[in-house]
Amino acid sequence: MSGSAAVPSRDELQGLLAFIRESERLKDTLRSGWTSSGQRDSVAGHTWRLCLMAVVFHPAFPEVDLGKLLTICILHDLGEAVGGDIPAPAQGAAGSKSAAERADLVRLLAPLPESLRTELADLWDEYEAASTPEARLAKALDKLETIIQHNQGANPPSFDYAFNLEYGRQYTDVHPLLAAIRAELDAETLRRSEESGRGMPDPRAEGVVR
Fold first, then answer.
1. Which of 31, 42, 93, 177 has the greatest number of C-beta atoms within 10 Å?
2. What is the assigned CATH class of domain 10-195?
3. 114-129 vs 133-152: helix axis angle to the nearest 10?
């Protein structure tokens, strides 16, 4: 295979490989949700399906660069390979989560060449700030993937489905496609809650704006 890009030096190549090896920890980093087979979800598994959703739904967002979107999706939870996952319901009480996760990401990126470290860290910052179309779409899809997994999982009896109805709505209600997906998932959340015996009133029936 030919190409114009320079082959990295041996030291640079070792740094790249060190980063790839260290990132393997994400495969063992568990989330609070469950898969449909009753296994704990992993951050790597969540990231994979987030990327798949980006590919599937990207055509509805012509202003979004798919390559950049996928890169942001891949990076968005990478720092959790070091510090682990904080479940979404607990994040409100973890005000330093973003700073701690960024520090973990910077530690993970350390073996990379400086220009690549800067590029990837800047994209992570872009995601956290939701400052571009790519970052905002990644945020929305991240929330939707989490809700899909919550509804799809073989969850314990105490699972709190009500959490789904508010989670990430500020990102998912801003585009007709995202809102349509969200409406389907909200209906599914209500069904799962009823099936679990932890039923809750349908907010739409009460006229409550969510």
1. 31
2. mainly alpha
3. 70
